[in-house]
Amino acid sequence: MILHPLNSDPQLTSLKQPDINTLTQVQPHGVLLVLREADLSIVQVSRNCRQAFGLPAEEVLGQSLDDLLDSYQVDQFRDGLRYENLDIMNPTKVWVRRRGDDYGVYDAIFHRNGEGFLILELEPALNNENIPFLSFYHLARASIGQLEAGSASLADFCRIIVHEVRQVTGFDRVMLYKFDEDGHGEVLAEEKLEEMESYLGLHFPESDVPQPARKMFLSNWIRVIPNAKAEPVDLVPAVNPITQQPTDLVMSILRQPYRCHIEYLHHMHVEASLTISLMKDQKLWGLIACHHKTPKYVPYELRKACEFLGRVIFAEISTLEEEADQSYRLQLAAVQTALIDQMAQEDYFIDGLVGHDPNLLDLVGAKGAAICFGGQWTTLGRTPPEEELNYLVQWLGKSVDQDIFVTNALPLEYAEAQRFKDVASGLMAIPISKRSYVLWFRPEVIQTVNWGGNPNQAYTLVGEAEDQWLCPRQSFELWKETVSLRSLPWQPVEVKAALELRKAIVNIVLRQAEELALLANDLERSNAELKKFAYVASHDLQEPLNQVANFVQLLEMRYDAKLDEDGKEFIGFAVEGVSLMQTLIDDVLTYSKVDLQGIEWQLTDVQHALDPLPTIVADGTQLMQLFQNLIGNAIKFRKPTETPRIHVGVQRQDDHWLFSVADNGIGFEPQFAERIFVIFQRLHTRDEYPGSGMGLAICKKIVECHRGRIWVEAAPDQGATFYFTIPVEGRDRNHGNGRKAQNYLFSRG
To answer: Residue 191: helix, strand or coil by DSSP?
Structure first.
């Protein structure tokens, strides 16, 4: 015998999960017949049919039920077969004459296998198998009464189920086993003989109940193995002679279990088992698993009674869970309604999510949240640093194309998240647009999980060449695992609440976008009228100003000799006023011409304005004017006792260029950092420093029309540094990692 570690062979999956409909053997405690429903002729039969009919399999094949049973019983079968649901005739008592007056009494169970064939299974009927309905009803009623008497928890319900099933069946051990979302199972309740090993609270890997078995449990609620050591019986012939394929026995009660399942029971030191499916919302919620140390046959009616008991009491479990879910669902719905109302009342929808009670954290029970919108981050609670958030949304943009991304093990999917696992091992993210997200975070919760044996060694591959099979682990002793890099899981009701919020945010953003579009149209029309007015006004004002200038000059030329000093000074004032007025008109006209539509977007080599600087996407003419104004300001406001020094720098950051113009001039108080960009605002008189007060206002408008921003840092006698950004845009957006800085220096002395 050769042992191989799990997953060492690519064929493990197929060995571990063979198709149920390829199995061609049955358990020996009953007889199975495959019938053609039209005439009830026998197509296949289990080889042990002699114990029921007194005939070998070869002689039974080809006969009809009329040949084997009395006509009265067969007529009853035909009446029942008219119904689509055959449960109404299961079980039917059948008396089979073997020889002379020797009769065998069997429970006949019919089902259709979906291939057009009728499966008839005969199990021995025991004399004491009947369970009076009223007695069983009172038993079930008493069980439910125990639960209704107090505030029963899920654990209480589970304990009641295993107790009552063990009382009815007499099995040595009964467990209730619930499946988790990731597929593994946990024993929630157990009742057993004292000397048997306890599995209460232990987890079992998904492979213990493989997917083919789970599919079978969805349709076949009861599975019984009376004797795990019994030799299986072949079907004769092995394949259906009509279809030339193995007959599908998924719904069969007698179908022989997988070899690995039989060995699994042997390793648990049990020889009989009964399994009952627990269903919720058409999904397999869990199982009731009954084990016996010695062979134990459970009649059909008793099995159905256990199934009924499980369904009745499990219905109470479902109700309990649904009530808990409904309570939490209503709580989250109230939070969701409040958030939507708050967003609608705020000018900026994000303020409605973070600035009130309840807030974004309350919607999904998160410890931190972050909103990326318009390139800006708004955070709440405990979140990763902004730099990590930027990397995270870049990864989401490349990896996620759905309306929501949910994980409680982010570091296992996004390795960089290990750096902030204590804050965000759990992540739920909803995209608002291509680059805008709402993120919720949950911290790492380190847990100890108790397994029934090492889940990493659930199976070994046994045998050689083509004769190989999977052998389950031989030890179910407690095996502890420390689970890290995971948060508490997100509940389905929380995921649904996040999706509903996403719809609301998208609707609000679209509505605000429509309002902004209308406002933009109004502003565009207003700006067009303002530009037209500025142009007309400047043109119309220039003519009278020129006349004033001309006549003042004539006055000075003709009457210079007759004017005293005051007269000459007055004429000088008039000339300066006219010159200033002309400058103001020119600057106003320049300011009015700076707008987004007027920008000529093109690759612009900034070194045409200053040498050396990078090539960016911008309007070259306006960029030239921007640098001229900033550098001109630096020269104008120099210290009279120092040689002016001007430093121009640029740095690539994410999706924009950051420019700076620094000087060693007179500077100013930081409180005026916003005021200096306002049209006609000045910090000095024209006698101290000439100018119209329009230069920085023009700079601000140029930068904003390029979708950037401008600001200044300054202090008295410490100089000033003006910063502005220009978006990378176009092809440069996707080049490089966006975080390698390049610095350029331009100096003038």
So the answer is: strand
What is the rounded distance in angstroms from the CA atom of residue 483 to the CA atom of residue 476?
20
Among 706, 708, 713, CA closest to 724: 708
Q: Cα–Cα distances in Å, from 516 out to 98, 374, 375, 419, 507?
A: 91, 14, 18, 40, 14
- pLDDT tens-digit series, residues 610-669: 556 778 888 777 888 888 889 988 888 888 888 889 999 998 887 888 999 999 998 888
The full length of the chain comes to: 749
| pLDDT average, residue stretch 495-512 | 82
Q: Which helix (H) or strand (E) holds 644?
A: none
Answer for the pair 661, 631: CB distance below 8 angstroms, yes or no.
yes
- The distance from CA 503 to its chain's CA centroid, rounded to whole angstroms, is 16
Higher pLDDT, 134 or 207: 207
Residue 246 and residue 23 in contact, taking contact as beta carbons nearer than 8 Å:
yes
CA distance 183 to 296: 30
Contact 255, 239 (CB under 8 A): no
Residue 3 has pLDDT above 50, yes or no: no
Burial letters 64-77, b for 16+ CB under 10 A, else e: ebbebbeeebbeeb
Q: What is the full DSSP assignment across 254-291? A: SBPPPHHHHHHHHHTT-SEEEEEEEEETTEEEEEEEEE
Rounded distance, CA 75 to CA 21, Å?
30
Q: Which domains are delineated in the chain?
A: 12-18+131-324 (3.30.450.40), 26-124 (3.30.450.20), 335-443 (3.30.450.270), 515-593 (1.10.287), 602-748 (3.30.565.10)
Torsion of CA 30, 36, 40, 45, to 10 degrees: -30
Amino acid at 360: L
What mean pLDDT is reported for the chain? 79
Q: Distance (Å, rounded) from C-alpha 419 to C-alpha 411?
A: 9
